[in-house]
Design goal:
Layout: H1 2-8, H2 15-52, H3 54-63, H4 66-82, E1 86-91, E2 101-105, H5 110-121, H6 123-139, H7 146-161, H8 167-175, H9 177-193
Antiparallel strand pairs: 1-2
Helix pairs in contact: 2-3, 2-9, 4-5, 4-6, 4-7, 5-8, 5-9, 6-7
């Protein structure tokens, strides 16, 4: 795909251009995915609200897919920890309109703190994709009983519904955008030097 873009735009095909385009496409894909899932959630909730009322619709869409909430919040916490932030608090029990939350304390210099904020903010999409890929390739092939298929699809759909990004997630992401772009550019540049391209 990157090669096609480079050819269409008549860009130089050096490793730095590839790495830059891969970095931009990665972050655009993550942000657009989070936005689209949020939009789909809103449409489903609004449709259910018209049928059964707003409170039952909220409960049905959010509490019925609660494993996705746990995955969402633990994704924030995991990427915060992996990048060196301190996880101060994880709330996995719904309270009012909040299904859960994670409070982190970024540590290190400005660059590292910004990176921690940015990557932990988009963690539900990144970890969601990794989890869905793993479930699809490692768990689904082993399913044989009907209850296993039902459980698989329940968890799979629950994760998808909670791969959305909140306003706070977008704000934190943009606070650390530059360090994240630099780190991923360097990762893609190094991988590209070994002939690994996405």
């Amino acid at each position: 795909m990157i090669t096609l873009i480079i050819e269409r735009l008549s860009l130089p095909g050096n490793p730095a251009v590839y790495a830059l385009l891969e970095t931009i496409l990665l972050f655009l894909t993550v942000l657009i995915t989070g936005f689209l899932i949020s939009l789909i959630n809103r449409v489903i909730t609004d449709a259910l609200s018209g049928l059964i009322g707003s409170v039952p619709a909220f409960i049905l869409r959010n509490y019925l897919t609660y494993p996705g909430t746990v995955h969402h919040e633990l994704s924030h916490a995991l990427l915060a920890l992996v990048t060196g932030a301190r996880v101060k608090k994880i709330v996995l029990f719904p309270k009012g309109n909040t299904l859960g939350s994670v409070e982190i304390e970024p540590r290190g210099n400005f660059f590292i703190k910004a990176l921690q904020l940015s990557l932990s903010a988009i963690a539900p999409v990144i970890m969601g994709v990794i989890s869905l890929y793993s479930l699809w390739n490692l768990v689904l092939p082993k399913a044989g009983e009907i209850w296993q298929y039902i459980l698989f699809w329940y968890v799979f759909v629950s994760i998808i519904f909670h791969m959305s990004l909140s306003g706070a997630d977008y704000r934190n992401f943009f606070k650390g955008l530059l360090p994240s772009l630099i780190v991923f550019f360097l990762i893609f540049l190094i991988l590209g030097s070994f002939g690994i391209r996405f």
